[in-house]
Amino acid sequence: MISADIVFITLSASIFFGFILNALLNKLKIIPVIPLIIIGVVFYYLNSAGLSPFIASASNYVSGIAIMAIIFNAGMSLRFERFKRLFIKANLFMIANVIISGLIISFILVYLFRYSYIYALILGFALSGPSSLVVPSTISMIKADNDIKDILKYESVASDIFELILPLTLIQFYLYNGLISLKSILYSYIAYFVFTNIFGSILLGFVFALAWIYLLKRFKRTAQAYAWILTIAFIMLVYSLSDYMNLNSAISVFVTGIVLINVGANRKSLFKSMKADIVDTLKHIYNYQQEFAFLISTIFFIFTGILVSYYYYPISYYSLLVITVSLLIIVLFRYLLARYIQSDKRDQQSRKIVAFDIPRGISPLIIASLLYQYGIAQNNTLVIVVSIIFISSIIYSIGIMIYKPLKRRGKQN
């Protein structure tokens, strides 16, 4: 059995290592996802005998915590007041790219690995957009139009939400219908999922968010010092209750986050008769939530390295080549679509930055781990997902290196 001291030392060292990678990002153009996964791989091979008995049972808890942290963080990052001017343009761009990217990757998975159409769509849409854990921290050091930067930041957050909620919904279709087939999606349980599962998930998140806003206002003096940890406990309740009711937990947690930050921070919104102002409290919650998301994502990337080693299944060099070509095709599509979000159509540099913005991150890893947890994963699923994340990170890093970082002197965008 593996020593608890070894686990804590490795975890502590990995968190500090992840922080150092993020700190060096501006200079070395390092994306911390792959190094953290490598740490997990090394950790597994050094302690495989002690880890193997616990991997399957631990996956359920680690995936659940990761979904809660990432989805809630994404919801609280979508301030309508900040993005309202670009909301329509940013959403159309995000939706177009997610659909195109998801279908391209799905087609490649069917072609290379003979996956069923719905299984390929689960993975394809899980890998369809850039990661909110990577893009916001790197886009600020690139010379580009401010609107382009805001749209790319919004796209990364909205894509992470889409990459979790849609595949989770497709997985639920599979679990209810017993097989993954296109017919089961088109003809079975549509009314149930639309009117009870999805609508019920939204309603649950909305009601709980309003209840939490009321409680934060009603007990502001008492709750302010413990607002973040109480909110995390509350989010765990929302997630668990939604899952227990066979609803979509990711949707409920996302709705809770987005309502909390947009309604709670609006002084003219509901409960305006209550004098307590919780804007500062919500800022406190949001800031601590950023740190919590960093902690959970670091742990999850390391755990992914352990899962890759545990479920390892080799794929051919030809498959890696085809995957690389498919990602470059996505780059081309992004370049063509970029002109529709540009204020200056002659700004070629901004178009190229948009084109290279394809790093995949934590959302597809969560979906892949859930497929193993539910016992429906194909042998090479996790290796394929990690390979796509690795290749997309390389392409993104090359794109960053091509364009000079912002200089300290002079005006910065």
What's the topology here?
Elements (H helix, E strand, L loop, with lengths): L3 H25 L4 H14 L1 H30 L2 H4 L3 H27 L3 H10 L8 H5 L6 H32 L4 H6 L2 H29 L1 H4 L3 H18 L4 H15 L15 H32 L6 H22 L9 H9 L5 H12 L7 H22 L11
Helix pairs in contact: 1-2, 1-14, 2-14, 3-8, 3-13, 3-14, 3-17, 5-6, 5-8, 5-15, 6-8, 6-17, 8-17, 10-12, 10-13, 12-13, 12-14, 14-17, 15-16, 15-18, 17-18
Commentary on this structure:
- With 413 residues, the protein is mainly α.
- It has a single domain (55-402), classed as Na+/H+ antiporter like fold (Up-down Bundle).
- It is built from 18 helices and no strands.
- 42% of the residues are buried.
- Mean pLDDT is 80; it is low at 405-413.
In short:
This protein is mainly α. It is 77% helix and 0% strand.
Query: Which CATH class applies here?
Result: Mainly Alpha
Strand share of the residues? under 5%
- Examine the coordinates and then state which fold CATH places here, giving the name of the CATH topology: Na+/H+ antiporter like fold
Alpha-beta classification = mainly alpha
Specify the helix fraction band: over 70%
Amino- and carboxy-terminal Cα gap: 53 Å
Average residue-wise pLDDT? 80
Number of domains: 1
Biggest sheet record:
none
Whole-angstrom Rg: 21 Å
Q: State the low-pLDDT regions, or none.
A: 405-413
CATH structural architecture: Up-down Bundle
In total, how many beta strands?
A: 0
Number of helices: 18
- Principal-axes shape call: globular
String of helices and strands: HHHHHHHHHHHHHHHHHH
